[in-house]
Amino acid sequence: MRLSWFSAVAGAVTANALPTITATGNKFFTSEGKQFFMKGVAYQLTPDDPLVDTEQCTRDAGLMKTLGANVIRVYHVDPKADHDGCMAAFADAGIYTLIDLDTFSTYILPQTPYWNSTQRDAYAAVLDAFSKYDNSLGFFVGNEIIAEADQSMAAPYIKAAARDLKAYRDNKNYRQFPIGYSAADIAELRPMLQDYLTCGGNASENIDFFALNSYEWCDPQTYDASGYANLQSMAIDFPVPIFFSETGCNQPGPRLFDDQNAIFGPKMVNDWSGALIYEWIQEANNYGLISYGPPVDPTAVGSNIEGGFTRKGMPTPVSPDFNNLKTIWATITPSGVASSTYDPKHVSTRACPTSTASGWLVDGNVKLPTLGETFTGGSFTPTASATGSVTPATKTGSAAPSSTTSPASNPASGPASVNKELAGMSAGLLGVMLVFTVWL
Ligand SMILES: *[C@@H]1O[C@H](CO)[C@@H](O)[C@H](O)[C@H]1NC(C)=O
Ligand SMILES: *[C@@H]1O[C@H](CO)[C@@H](O)[C@H](O)[C@H]1NC(C)=O
């Protein structure tokens, strides 16, 4: 007993020594009172949980530390697995985690959304599994669920998921883990979606952060010619933290990651909390920062080989992308503001957007779906305190945005490009379907 008590205490001292992180106003702060900016990477080696192999995590965490990363985003985890070794390996490297709560079988469907206790319990199990780690930064209730106008009726379900997971978090007396959403960068929907998910005046029903998967900046590029000036104009004094949950356009390549200078530069740094680069592992989509070996025959099968790429082993930097990012991140050290001097009253909640016939279909501050409710068409009931018009939204099935990708500056690499990734879930619906086809 004494021995195990001693080793438990010793373990608690060496691992998980990072300050915890919470959101206030539009910023993240560490428990030491410093503003926290994300320099992150998407980390998903196969569709399976990558946080179960301590040796692999240790190898990857070490090189991520060299890269200058302080956050990983993981799209799929198994709540029943043991994550202690990997979470300690990342904590030792100063790296926090952002975890997607949904799975291939529980994510909110874009066309026929429902939100029920099966989903809530599955998301809660992930929250439970990661609640004990100091380097758990936050959680996503969804990734790129809405990619077309006729899918905007899923937005109240995203809010319902956030509402119920935040209530679960609080009932369990967990830390105030920020719980947010990761959006596809759809020019016609993004402004309404980001405002809708944070509007209505009841923080219990709003997301704690808004994150954007954006491939608008393809090097060489400038702030004014990219879409970032427009993104920035909509992020000024946003009510919750906003950051890039995927970025790193690889057209035409090599990637210079000059957008990091914009995101952390004087025009954006007061409103954004950083960026996660897509992605750690090199695979067929060619977004990798590292590889575990040269490509192999796509039909090859073998341990740790899937889809023509080795998925474990010693990480080797992809040149020149890895060093380009490392060099840029090394020059970026924003100090931000101290929580003791930060006044969150600067931020402003926007009105709930009103619907338009073929655009955003959720009209104002609608009543959120209850747990168990399925969307059966038509419109949602406006609440008594609706800030928008009460004209019912009609569901126009044929409505689609004029473009489903980013502005013209980035014709090739919008979030819906089908070949973007194999393991992650970040290519919108098409990506989801691809993953289903390949892996299930
Ligand atoms: C939730 O919905 C899914 C899909 O229809 C269904 O399989 C599951 O049984 C539902 N859960 C509950 C508790 O009704
Ligand atoms: C805010 O939302 C929560 C969760 O839906 C609800 O229980 C609460 O009554 C709401 N508060 C107000 C003032 O409407």
From TrEMBL:
InterPro entries given in the database record: GH, Glucanosyltransferase
A cellular component annotation (GO) from this entry: plasma membrane
One GO MF term: 1,3-beta-glucanosyltransferase activity
Protein name from the UniProt record: 1,3-beta-glucanosyltransferase
One BP term from GO: fungal-type cell wall organization
Stored Pfam families: Glyco_hydro_72
Protein family according to the UniProt entry: Belongs to the glycosyl hydrolase 72 family.
Disordered, as annotated region: 379-416
EC number: 2.4.1.-
Polar residues bias: start-end ranges: 379-390
Purpose of the protein: Splits internally a 1,3-beta-glucan molecule and transfers the newly generated reducing end (the donor) to the non-reducing end of another 1,3-beta-glucan molecule (the acceptor) forming a 1,3-beta linkage, resulting in the elongation of 1,3-beta-glucan chains in the cell wall.
Biased composition (Low complexity): 391-416
